[in-house]
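**User:** My hope is that you can spare some time for a protein that puzzles me. I have put the entry right below:
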Amino acid sequence: MLDLVQQTVSGIALGCVYGLIALGFVLIYKATEVVNFAQGDLMMLGGFFAFTFIAMSGLNYWLGFLLSVLSMAIVAMIGERILVRPILGNPQFSIVMATIGLGYFLRSVAGMIWGTDDLKIQTPFSDGVLKVGDLVLAHDKLSIIAATLILSVALYLFFNKTRLGTAMRATSENMLAAYYMGIPVKRVVSLVWAIAAAVATCAGILLAPITFIHSNVGLALGLKAFPAAVLGGFGSIPGALVGGVIIGVIESLAGFYLPEGWKDAAPYLVLLTVLMVRPEGLFGAYLSKKV
């Protein structure tokens, strides 16, 4: 039972990271109908920024955290303006290939600047543990769960209680109608990219003490986060988080209880099973289009 609880907590923590990355997929897709396959690499670059500010420059952890989030928000806005906005309206395949190319570019830049070695950030949660009887839970994993809950509440309040959040929701529902209502659609889309990158950066910094930081970590985690978004329902923000947690828990339990090799395969088997029963995902809405 202790092993089950510990593996479940570990899976929830990892799943929260998948969920935060998947949240970026969903936010950008809802606003622009663009699938940003560089989302995991934005997380990776945010982790390197945090390493630069905290480990190399010696800044306070929380200050370095904030600077990393702001820096990645700016990088994402620049990337959207230069790469994505000029080709909006073209076939989706062109935009998908552009985001895949952006991911390769970010990985190459990270490798040239920071090298290919695994890097680690020392955080206030790196070494602490919580003991409940014989149960031992690491603070770094609990901090990921707590931070995900805080971010989820903050995003909910932002999107539902602020004028800017309402403008973003309107843009995601109907971009042309939002434009005619006087909403600065281009600026809103840039802010959506910034928020998606900021959330991914939070995930990368929180995960750094567990999996370290290297140039390919974004690709690996992005390939897990995308199925999480699909599992939850690609247009659903709560679904992205729930799908990430499901993928993380299944992966953790499969790695502990099943033979070697099932750890990576089990989440995709569950995904395929769910999609055969409910193709729109767990929280997705069934939509039909007249042609």
